[in-house]
């Protein structure tokens, strides 16, 4: 059986009445059905108790990107600038979900906002607008480009730590990535190890130290270009292998019972 892969959702308005909907981009569905080789399961932004109910049924977890920013109160940061999108329901769901997944050893891949959530969930903090900081690059979505160039275009290089998963998959220590974020890691969480950096020093890739299973995060969006980018595809394939192995162990435990 294919592994069940949880995909974190956001609360977004839908239709003429702006009805709140639980939503995730189709790009995550396609990548799970593609190189991950799993069955996508949308996880609603339904609150902290979701982790206890859903984690035993999952074989992997993808934390998605989003336009919304993690609420600063979760890392003792200053209030967001007026108009900054927030998603309190998602925060309330994903932060405990991350901690529970890591404690269980469930394979986890965190992307963009998910990358930032991973850092906050484990005790780190965020810069809210990296582009406003002295000496830093503008990592946000370009205003003068049209899709799909915004999503798949390579914005800058990432320097990789030798001897890590990404250098193994890439076969080199530097790679070009897309860039579609405002927030970035400020204080790295104690359990995270930085494994990739942008030219301005922004942390772009992390691994969970002493994790019982696959647990990695990237600041860029590999789900946008896995059909043409070898590293993006390889990253999802490796995550899928970890999820399939987890599913196999799960079935073995069930048979033993």
CATH H level, superfamily name: Class I glutamine amidotransferase (GATase) domain
Number of helices: 7
- How many strands, what sense, and barrel or not for the largest sheet? 9 strands, mixed
Intertermini distance:
19 Å
Structural class: alpha/beta
CATH topology: Rossmann fold
Descriptive key words:
alpha/beta; two-stranded antiparallel sheet; Rossmann fold; globular; nine-stranded mixed β-sheet; 31% helix; 257 residues; single chain; 7 helices
Can you describe this structure?
The chain has 257 residues and is an alpha/beta fold. The chain has one domain (4-256): Class I glutamine amidotransferase (GATase) domain (Rossmann fold). The protein has helices at 26-36, 50-54, 88-104, 113-121, 149-152, 165-170, 230-256, and strands spanning 4-8, 10-14, 19-23, 39-43, 60-63, 108-111, 126-127, 156-160, 174-177, 184-185, 192-197, 203-208, 215-218. α1 (26-36) packs across α7 (230-256).
SSE arrangement:
Layout: E1 4-8, E2 10-14, E3 19-23, H1 26-36, E4 39-43, H2 50-54, E5 60-63, H3 88-104, E6 108-111, H4 113-121, E7 126-127, H5 149-152, E8 156-160, H6 165-170, E9 174-177, E10 184-185, E11 192-197, E12 203-208, E13 215-218, H7 230-256
Parallel strand pairs: 1-4, 1-5, 5-6, 6-13
Antiparallel strand pairs: 2-3, 7-10, 8-9, 8-11, 11-12, 12-13
Helix pairs in contact: 1-7, 3-4
In short:
By secondary structure, the protein is α/β, with parallel strands linked by helices.
